[in-house]
Amino acid sequence: MAQYSLEKCAEFAANPHLRAPLSAFTANPRMRDPALYRPSPELAEAVNVALHLGIPLLLTGEPGCGKTELAWHLAWYFHLGEPLVFNAKSGSSATDLFYQYDALGHFQYSQNHAEALSPDELERRFIRYQALGVAIRSDGRRVVLIDEVDKAPRDFPNDLLDALDKLRFDVPELGKSYHTSDANRPVIVLTSNSEKNLPDAFLRRVAYFHIEFPKPDKMLEILGAKVLDLSQSQLKALCDHFYALRTDRELRLEKMPATAELLQWAAWLRDTGFPIVELARPGRLDAQARAALRASYTILAKTRKDLEALCQRLSD
């Protein structure tokens, strides 16, 4: 594992010809393996409701609880290829769900070329189909993930549902329309961080489910599946310490560490040879282990205040 060392800095400064080799990064494929996603029975039922009725599934829950991962899991389960992802923004419009037109690029091209482009050539050069547009133009069913729909303007959700009812869209720049049948209706997963209220008319036309943060026993299952080569005692020590941080009222963390942070933290401690079982008795850690644990809190904390609180808790 390539490491950055302050001691090496002085050595390299004294000898400019020396440099540390940086090895290729190797990701843990299990971290995002859709086959390892563990939905609750209640979430599975919500999925079946949405599929049976052909309506979008709206998911809420704190960041890191698995909202977006569900779309990848469903695409894997039904063998529908990778999900088509649309990240909603404050300026998103319903048209953006289907395609984007590079008007500036087309204008610049027209200024330098006398001959007009054919519709097919215009489409190839200056039209970029987006998630829902790609799904409607596909020969089969696809999973479409519309992430953080609450960030979009207030009329965006209703425009989205109107588009899904019609399963068609127009590209006036080309004089074309695209449509698909109910048999090829996309599977729509919507996520919301509940930053603002969504329109009532929209909520009446979706299936809704709130993903609760996993209980410790469920988290043990997730952690064991995603991070290999950990004993049961290590898994339990990690989960107990993690939940103790989340539930410590004196810490008052601004941003609670979530499942993604736990998985990264566990992998880091495992790879660095940290005595994980000793997390059950942090007061007995020696100075070196305490320093290593304090450094690892940079994975769990996301604000300066939270990092200081976690380090102070370890020092008490």
Folded structure, characterized:
- There is one protein chain.
- This protein has 316 residues and is an alpha/beta fold.
- Helices cover 46% and strands 12% of the residues.
- It is built from 14 helices and 9 strands.
- Strands 2-5-8-1-9 form a 5-stranded parallel sheet, sandwiched between helices. A two-stranded antiparallel sheet has the order 3-4.
- Strand 6 and strand 7 form a beta hairpin.
- Helix 10 crosses helix 11 (232-247), helix 12 runs antiparallel to helix 13 (287-300) and helix 13 packs antiparallel against helix 14 (304-315).
- The longest helix is centred in the last third of the chain and has 16 residues, at 232-247.
